[in-house]
Amino acid sequence: MNGFHLDRGIDIGLDLGTVNTLIYQRGKGLIVNEPSILACEARSNKILEVGRDALIMHEKLHPGIITIRPVKKGVIADYECTVKMIKVLLDKVKTKFYWSIRRMVISIPMGITEVEKRAVYDAAEHIGAREIYLVAEPMAAAIGIGLNPFEPVGNMIVNIGAGTTEIAVICLGGIASGESLPIAGTELDDTINRYIRDHRNLAISDYIIETIKKTLSSALRLEQELSMNVSGLNIETGLPDTIEIDSETLRKVIATPLNQIIVSIRKNIEALSPKPDIAVDILKRGIYLTGGGALIKDMNKKIATETTIPVNMVDNPLTPVIMGIGTIIEDLPFYRTLLSTNKNKNPFFSGKNQDTDSGTSQQNSENNQSRNNDNDL
Question: What distance in Å separates the CA atoms of residue 230 and residue 208, rounded to the nearest whole number?
Answer without folding.
Answer: 7
